[in-house]
Amino acid sequence: MIATTAPHLVCLDDYVPILRAQEIDDLRALAKRLAGRSVQMVNSTAVGGGVAEILNRLIPLMSELGLVPRWDVITGGADFFEITKAFHNALHGVPFEPRPHDFETFLACTEQNRQRLQFDAEFTVIHDPQPVALIDARPPRSGHWIWRCHIDLSRPNEGVWEFLRPFVCKYDGALFSSPEFSQQLPIPQYQFFPCIDPLSDKNREVEDETVREVVERFGIDPKRTILTQISRFDRLKDPIGVLRAYQIVKRYDDCQLVLAGGSASDDPEGGAVLADVREAAGNDPDVHILDLPPSSALEINALQRASTIVIQKSLREGFGLTVTEALWKKKPVVASAVGGIPAQVIHKHTGLLTHSVEGTAYQIRFLLANPALAQRLGEQGHEHVREHFLITSNVRRYLALFLFQAREN
Amino acid sequence: MAANIRAKRPFRFSTASYITRIDNERAMNLGQLREGLARCSDASVFYHTFQSLGRHHFLTEGFSNDFAQWVLAAVNLPGLAEQLGGLDIRNYVDLSTLRSDALRIIDEFCLAHPDDERSPAFEPFYFLSSVEVLVPLGVEAWTLDEFRYWLERASHTSFHFHFLVSRLRLHLQSNDFSVWFKEELGLERLARLTERIDICTDTLEGGQARLVALIERELAA
Fold first, then answer.
1. What per-residue confidence (pLDDT) applies to A4?
2. A347 and chain B: CB distance < 8 Å anywhere?
3. CB 3.0–4.6 Å: which of A273, B5, B27, B112 could bond B33 by disulfide?
4. Count of structural domains within chain A
5. Nearest Cα to A55, choosing from A185, A154, A151, A150?
6. Same domain, A74 and A160
7. Would residue A209 count as lying in a domain?
């Protein structure tokens, strides 16, 4: 087992070698005007998934900048999270027939959380649909309420969206990871990228020795080509499609495929998808399906660094932080042109975009045949992430948003 | 001696942060891009040209503005993309002229290639705009030497704000730096050389380093 870094409180100055001191000074200048002002973040899981990862770092950094942030996680029973998972899939466009009982359970759980939590911050940011109805807990003439939607809303299930939309309309603004997800709403809508933390175990520099040790522990040959998709075992990440693309590439190039996924406490569907993927892979010894526990950040880091090419063949995607992670590690990325991915993968500049299994296989083969191009894409992808998708950029955007909201009122 | 000149008014460094607003306009083909470009706000034209360059400054080849990139990647028209990419934002003192020129290029192309006007794009073009939040950094320079000191310590965003965004505010073919060099220090040559720094083919970091080098030469003269 690899030891993760000893827990130490990351501070802004730790980012100076990555960003330049000037960028950190800018953050401090922006934050000065918000000193002492309260911020509340609310989401549905403390562990697993991109939102929890972001909040884990965002809150301490805001605190260091002089704001008074707080993070609350809503609670609910298995029935609530099954319904919200179904809503989640339906909002991504998966067919779903909501029953009145689903809405009642959703509202009953919201009410319990409304009674349990306190809402007195100047800036309240509610993440994703699960806690969206908490807007009804907003005290009269209180602070600013923002809904941050991390998921792909481009083709939402009508029944679910019609239920959620009246709640969204009560907010002061909505934040989407891509303009494609925006909706006809009477409130201002903004593009807001999620982010990664370059100092976290998942993204920090690791020694080659560690990378090799992890890869070998999983039975992967580090000397041969490694194609990797890191994602939850979720149908919308299309792991079977990745498998098919790999099988096409394999006809021409010797390679291995790694499908590695974590799990989140609000996703009850992962087990069934994992079983389907295992069945589809059959007995191919070059396919490595890794079901990783939530504490596998360093393993994921090492797998990404060991990869020749990183794939993200999602059918729908909120943003795709695994793409961001791969780009940060200067990896050439072949990814579907869905959701927030085109914001990260600028075709032929920071990676290659595809629209099908065959296209994915073709672009993988193209990069394997052109390693110099693959390297250039990886390096430009790294710069793109440094500029836009690091936690510090996220802090900056939130500060600007809060200043703007305060100015508007 | 440039080093001995003291300005009557200091140069005050600021930084700007931007929030991207999603406008309710999208284009699914070249014709719709043209229609959207004709009616979108000035803020949107600004976002897709001046700010696009700032957002992608690390790409020094093949990327100039969002319109050109979309025409290349989503409608696969490299010739038109090159023409749109050739619009040099430093030549423009107002957004309406920049908008007119982009529209003229698209119109001429559509006239010559009418079949391409309604060909569906691989992905839509979304018209966006941005909200600026300006924050003074609380540092000021009275001399060229002090200016160099703070310029070396300025963020990319601050450099971008004073060097590029300022052009629209000033309605001049200039920038904050050149105006201060000329009006406060009387250094017309340095002002002119600063205006010539080509940010379209260099990174912001490169442009900033070039300006520092120009100032050092001026101080050494």
1. 43
2. yes
3. B27
4. 2
5. A150
6. yes
7. no
Query: Which of A330-334, A335-339, B3-7, B144-148 has the lowest average pLDDT?
Result: B3-7
In a domain, residue A316? The reply is yes
Whether residue A43 is contained in a domain is answered as yes
Q: What is the token pair recorded at A89?
A: 């899939």
Could you give the percent of chain B with pLDDT greater than 70? 95
Candidates A83, A110, A88; CA nearest to A99 is A83
Looking at the structure, do residues A18 and A131 belong to the same domain, yes or no? yes
Q: What is the CATH number of the domain that holds A374?
A: 3.40.50.2000
Tell me whether residue A207 is in a domain: no
Chain B: closest CA distance from residue A396 (Å): 7
A408 touching chain B per CB within 8 A: no
Tell me if chain A has a CB within 8 Å of the CB of B100: no
Same domain, A180 and A269: no
Q: Where are the domains of chain B?
A: 17-129, 138-220
* pLDDT tops 70 at residue B132: yes
Strands B6-27 and A189-191: antiparallel
Q: Closest-CA residue in chain A for B59? A: A380
Q: Are the Cβ atoms of A399 and B17 closer than 8 angstroms?
A: yes
> What is the complex's ipTM, to 2 decimals?
0.86
Nearest CA distance, A96 vs chain B (angstrom): 26
Nearest to residue A330, comparing CAs of A255, A386, A253, A391? A386
CB nearest B63 (choices: A33, A342, A349): A349
Domain shared by A251 and A396, yes or no: no
Distances from the Cα of A146 to the Cαs of A84, A190, B94, in angstroms? 20, 10, 34
Judge whether B48 and B65 are in contact, CB under 8 Å: yes
pLDDT > 70? residue A268:
no
- Determine the 3-state secondary structure of A176 from DSSP: strand
Tell if the CB–CB gap between A25 and B20 is shorter than 8 Å: no
Are A46 and A160 contained in the same domain? yes
Higher pLDDT, residue B89 or A153: A153
Domain with A102 in it: 12-195+390-408
Same domain, A50 and A191: yes
Q: Are residues A225 and A173 in the same domain?
A: no
Does residue A409 surpass a pLDDT of 70?
A: no
Find the mean pLDDT for residues A348-359.
93
Residue contact A397–B153, C-beta within 8 A: no
* CB contact set of B65 (below 8 Å; sequence gap of 6+): B48, B49, B52, B53, B84, B85, B87, B89
CB of A255 within 8 A of CB of A286? yes
In this predicted structure, what is the pLDDT of residue A5? 45
